[in-house]
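so my prof wants the structure for this chain in the tokens format not the other one, which i didnt know existed until like an hour ago. anyway here's the sequence
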Amino acid sequence: MKKLIPLIVTVIAFVVAIILYNQIIINIAQDTNTLIGLIVIATTAILLLVTIFLLLNHQLRNKNKKLQSRLEAWANISVSVRGAGDEVFNELPIGIIIYLQWKFRSYLE
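here's what i got, hopefully its the right format
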């Protein structure tokens, strides 16, 4: 429903504008050159807005894909690092403690 609120407000504003400027629209409709000019200007303005919207949407979609691929890469790396960290934690510290004790004893003697 929240997505439809801007559309509803825009439609209401459009209807109010038509009601308020009814006489001006009738006068413009009687002059064909002015009417054709306004139609062309309105059409190009709509095309410009649609093009801008599509461009921004495309850029956001590309940014989202890039961030998603980065997130997947981080997930893969974290799994690998977690596995290596477990292996190092389970095997390496004991060897370091033994090495340090041996090194300390050799200095004492």
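also thought this was worth mentioning. The chain has a mean pLDDT of 77.
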